[in-house]
Amino acid sequence: MTTWWKKSLAGQFIVFILAALLMGQTIAFLISSRQREVAIRQAIEGDFVSRTVALSGVLQTVPNDMRRNVLIASSTGYARFWLSDGLPDPSSWYRTAKANLDLSIMDLITANNTELQAEPSIAGQPADGDESITSWQPFKAVDAIPGAQFVHFADQEGMGIAQRLHDGSWLNAAYYKETPPNLWSTQSMLSIGITAVILSIIGALVANRIARPLRELAVSAEALGRGEETSISPPGSPDDIRQLYEAFDRMQLRLRRFVDDRTRMLAAIGHDLRTPLTTLKLRAEFVQDPDLQQKILATVDEMQSMTEATLSFAKSEATSEPTRAVDLAALIGSLCDDLAELDYNVDFRDSDRISYRCRPDNLKRAVRNLIENALRYAGSAAVSVQIAADAIEIRVDDKGPGIPQTQCEQVFAPFYRLEDSRSRDTGGVGLGLSISRAIARQHGGDIVLSSNNPGLRAALLLPFA
User: Fold this and answer.
1) Are 17 and 200 in contact (CB under 8 A)?
2) Beta strands 391-397; 381-387: pairing state
3) Most buried by CB count within 10 Å: which residue of 133, 142, 161, 257?
4) Which phi and psi angles does 171 have, rounded to 5°?
């Protein structure tokens, strides 16, 4: 089953544009997410380091009993500060840092001391320590105050600084802040959504601009295939579409010239053949042997019939008759009435009004050939006009001997005649079905022969306009 978006050019445009947008945004986010994390972390670390340096300078000037309040006041949602007598080992410092970071600012105010015993775990970190912490590293960013050390933990999400003060105590600073990539934030999704809507509208407009002249060209091509005169003008579209229109006009002109030239050539041949055939007829009158004379005249008549039928077959493809809308049921009904008035056994089954654009005279000729075949070989014909699933069907049923299934296509070949049930004695020159099929195909349809059990059913199929 064809996917819905494959059925229209606009749908394919929109799907491909949105797919390209999604892929481009995803790749851009993946590339920029790492840079974003690094930039955010550097900004946080810079602020944290500046705060620590400033705090170490303040602590040098305040009394000892005020230091704890200054440390608590300097704490933020992701940073904690406390004092220790010496530089702690990394493992011990890490446990204390986890305990401090796990407490809120209010908990720090109510706590009795800064060397907390509780060791709650930082999110994503094991409770017994961080394996990435092995030793302190000199921190050059605060070389103005000698003895500063630093350490990273929690996969670079956390950082610790130990700064020696003038009185020999150590200022400990720790921060921990997750910086998730957060690629699909509300803001980014809203941005992608707005961009997708704008691109979809633009894609639909562009596709419609391309598809509109193509639809017009398809209608013109269908009309040309049905033998209608059609005239199209190149639209104000890109050069590719304009060149397609111009090529269609040139093709249409060549086809008309080809048909007209062939028709004129065959008409000239037919006209030229009439003179020698008439001469042969006159000379046959001087033949003394009556049997020979009759054979010569019969041969000349057959040649003349074939010539006239060939000219008729060629002219039927010239499509000189203009197309117009008619009521098919009334058109076929009038044909059957005319034949019935000539004492032919033709039964037309009334049907509802069916308006159809066609070349009425040519279509009547095609149906007349089918009816005459049925009358010639079965003595009667039942005609009906029906609307099938995908076409309008004109049926001509008879109760005659029928046609073998293997020859249902061969009988449409020009001058082909069956030797058994439809012999030379009762048949024509073998162009009736060929002419009927040529007319049907000029209307975009076809003729299909099938068994009527007994008899033959000839169905002339016309596509819906």
Assistant:
1) yes
2) antiparallel
3) 161
4) -90, 120
